[in-house]
Amino acid sequence: MIMRYSLLAVAALLPACILGADSRPPPPHDAALNRDSRDRHHGQRGPEAGVQDSALEEGSTIDGESSPDQAADGWTSPDLALDMGAGPDLAVDGGTSADLVAADLASEVLGADAQGGCAQADNISVDKLPAISFVAYHDQPQIETYLQAVASALPAIATYKVLGQSAQGRNLPYLIIDATCQANPPAVFTIGTHHGDEPSSTESVLAIPDYLLRASTTDASVRSLLGTYAFYVLPLVNPDGFALNTRENAAGLDINRDYSYPLRSDADSFKTVEAQLMKSLQESVGFHAAIAYHSGAQEVIWPWCYTGDATADGSFFTAAGQKTAQAMSFTVYQQSYDDYPTQGEYIDYAYMRSHTLAATFEVSIPKAPSPALLAGVVDAAWKGTLSWVQAVSDHDQGGLHALPATAAARRRFPLTAPFDGTNRLE
After folding, report:
1. In which region does residue 230 sit, left (phi positive, over 0), alpha (psi from -120 to 50) or beta (all else)?
2. Residue 367 in this model has a pLDDT that exceeds 60
3. Which of 175, 186, 225, 405 gives the lowest tally of CB atoms within 10 Å of its CB?
4. CA neighbor of 162 nearest in space, from 64, 31, 54
């Protein structure tokens, strides 16, 4: 009988021992894991089609010389001061199932402390963040090196990736900044250079990591947004057009007319490899909000582009558009159709496909303003970016109210320059 009770006591202790062994603090997060292989908005899990990581070569620098790919005169950038810091080399994600499992596990404990809390956005150090200035245009090698350097400097929250290659084999690089400590945070997509001859749009997106991360150290509202949303930063949708200084891609096609929309199916769209890559990322992540940056005007516009009918979020778009235009010191904010009708733009596709709260920012009247004006353009674009994302946040929390009926009435601001319907600036 004594022996029987002894065995029962040992058996009772075993589960507690097992639980104790599993209750150790979680392992630290490895930022090189593929944390964006899941749908961040809808919670679906699956690898991004056509997405690959790119490793940062140790000791890589930007030499500041003009790139042979950059055809436009006057775009040679001076030496770009990059403090590469002592960050580890970025790991190459081989896309194995084991990596995906590890990424899922790591995302569950991102930044977690012993009490289960998380304060990633509250503890960002910008000491090793690479310096960047906007006194001249940057070429593609400089853009890629800068994005890599940000990821190397802040590996806990920043990840460098390559979406794929253009028709001529150039990279479409992007950066993910995720300080949310969430497994599937809502994501904001910022996109430049659908049109290759609009380089101020490229610079406006390239500036986002620097502005966002540095501002978060002093501005509580920016820090709150950084702790709520993951930011995807893709400066070059059309690297071939960027190299050739042409609106279209290498095949002579306008990428921003190649997306599906309610009157055109996927099968009749996505003829360009660049739009196909964008489709893969949009469907993988399901962005909650997006901003497509362009140049050639100064305005804030939103879906729909193809019809004058308002969207279900028309009140939000009008209120957010007004606030954003004011932040940028712009006078024009309107539904895109009221500029003039187009078919196949990214913002219509994103809103249709993922209910993405998407906008187009036209950041400068010249497509390529003088380098002396570039810093001012970039600064205004950042103010607009912050205003739009704050409006989305207010909307998510029920705090962004529609404008009064008189102010919310449809406003139409036709372009003053003549156009033939095919040369739309967006």
Report:
1. beta
2. yes
3. 405
4. 54
Strand partners, 198: none
Pick from 59, 60, 50, 54: nearest CA to 32:
54
The helix (H) or strand (E) run that includes residue 80 is none
Confidence of residue 112 (pLDDT cuts 50, 70, 90): very low
Q: What are phi and psi of 104, to 5 degrees?
A: -60, -45
CA distance 34 to 53: 8
User: What is the four-CA torsion angle of 343, 348, 349, 351, rounded to 10 degrees?
Assistant: -170
pLDDT in tens, 208-256: 999 999 999 999 999 999 999 999 999 999 999 999 999 999 999 999 9
Q: Considering the chain, what percentage of its residues have pLDDT values greater than 70?
A: 66
pLDDT at position 351, please? Answer: 98
Do 305 and 337 form a contact (C-beta atoms < 8 A)? yes
Domains detected in the chain: 24-408 (3.40.630.10)
Q: Give CA–CA dist 388/321, Å, rounded.
A: 8
CB atoms closer than 10 angstroms to residue 213:
24
* Mean predicted confidence (pLDDT) in 355-362: 98
- Tokens for 7, please give them: 């065995």
Q: Is the pLDDT at 321 greater than 90, yes or no?
A: yes
The pLDDT of residue 47 is above 80: no
Q: Looking at the DSSP assignment, which residues form a beta bridge with residue 162?
A: 52, 173
pTM beyond 0.85, yes or no: no
Residue 340 burial (10 A CB sphere; 0-12, 13-18, 19+): middle
Tokens of 222: 């920016």
| Tokens standing for residue 201 | 């749009």
Decide if pLDDT at 346 tops 60.
yes
The span from the CA of 369 to the CA of 398, in Å, is 39
Tell me phi and psi for residue 195, to 5 degrees: -110, 125
Structure tokens at 266: 């996927």
Asked if 233 contacts 173 with a C-beta cutoff of 8 angstroms, the reply is: no
Cβ pair 237, 192 in contact under 8 A: yes
* SS3 call for 298: strand
